Amino acid sequence: MDEIRSTPPTLGSADISALAHLYRGELYRSTVWRTRLDATTNWAVVTTGLALSLSFSSADASPLPLVLVGLLVAVFLMIEARRYRFFDFWRIRAHILEVHFFGPILLGQGVRLDNGWNTVLHQDYRTPALHITLMEAAGRRLRRNYGWIFGIQVAAYAGKLLIHPTPIATLDQLWARATIGPVPGAVVILCGVLFHATWITIAVRTYRSRRGADRDRPPRPARDAVLDLARGAS
Hints:
Radius of gyration: 26 Å
Number of strands: 0
Number of helices: 8
Shape: elongated
Oligomer: single chain
Strand content: under 5%
Helix content: over 70%
């Protein structure tokens, strides 16, 4: 009886087939959330483009659309950060199956359960938990996408104030162009500086918390073995 209990568990063909379907499901989920990420990024790009068109459409056009689009892009960023947390959640499950289930099979070792990956994955199904915070997700999207969108918005707003329709000659003209209704131009610009400083701070503070930042990475090989294999090279 002790020998039977000490025998490592094995998976039959039906179990392996079920795990293959499980991988397809996890990959599909991560793909769906990846598509949702692209949707919010597209919204941010389109609305920024519309704001640029409105603000530079005529000499009398107001820079207000560029201010409002910054707030709208911030909303899109937070929506995308939330979506990224779920995308990351499903992606990790698929990656675990790729590394610990399909990996040994590719090496001819069969299905291996000796490192306990199946137990960890089982526990994650019982008590699922997201693996990245909202601020970390926002920092990732800022460094990848939204930092560029905010940068274009800031450059366009500065260009609108400084040179459109004519270059400013005095600082008073800058404050006058930046004024929005009863809000003085100096206050508007100060709020803008604080607004974008917040995103810069999030991007910088979360940079060190990214996964795998401190792991040793192998040097880039002189030849790409995967490309060679795809080309049919021996």
